[in-house]
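Our working data are protein records whose layout never changes between entries. Getting from the letters to the C-alpha cells is the skill we practise here. To make this concrete, we reproduce a full record directly below:
***
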Amino acid sequence: MATTNKKTTTKKVLDKDKLIAMYMDYVLEQEHRPKTVYKFCKENKIKEEEFYNFFGSFEGLQKGIWERFYEHTITVLNKSPEFETFTNREKMLTFYYTFFEMLTANRSYVLFSLKEHESQMKNLEQLKGLRKRVKSFARDLIQDGNTDKAVKALQQSESIFSEAAWVQLMFLMKFWMDDNSAQFESTDVAIEKSVNTVFDVFDNTPLERVIDLGKFLWKEKMA
C-alpha cells in the first residue's frame, strides 16, 4: 500500500525577543514607529493578541527593549565565574563596559529612540524600567560593601549611591551618543574615570580623581 508524505509546516513561536527584533527592524527601515498595533502585526504576519501577550502598547515595548538590554548585560556578567570575585568598583566597571557593548551592537536603534521626539523628557520616558534596575544593581553593590564595615559611620548610603549610579549612566550615554572616536575608545576612558571618581567620592578621597575627570571632559569638549 502506497503512502504519501504530507508536508507539514511548523509555525515559529513568537517570544518577547522576536517581537522586539520585529519592532526594531521596523523603526530602522521606516524611520518612524508603527502607527497602530494592528498594522504592525498585519505587516509582520502575527496576530494582534500575540503582541498583547507581551506588551500593552508600543510605549511598553520601548521600555521593554531597554529592560532587555539590562537583562542581557546581567546574563553576560553572570556567565563569568570571575565576576563574583571582583570588588564593587570592578563590578560596576564591568557592568558599564558590558552594557555599552550592548548599546553599541544596537547603536542605530538607540540613537533613533533617544532622538525620536523634540522633547528630551519624552525620549527619556522609555528608560523608567532601566532606571529601576540600574539603581537596584548599584544598591546591591553597596549593601554587600556595607556588610564588611563594622563601623556604621563608614557605611555608604545605598539611596545616594544608587541615584549617583543612574546619573552617571545618563552622563555616559550622552557621552557615548556624541562619541566619534574609533571603537568608542573615548567612552571607555570616560567609564573608567567616572566610575573611579564616584567610588573615590564615597571613599572620601575624591580630589585627585575629580580633577582628573574634569581635565578629561574639558579636553573632549574642546577637541
Remarks:
- Residues 6-10, 150-155 have pLDDT under 50 and may be disordered.
- The CA atoms of residues 119 and 125 lie 10 Å apart.
- The chain has eleven helices and no strands.
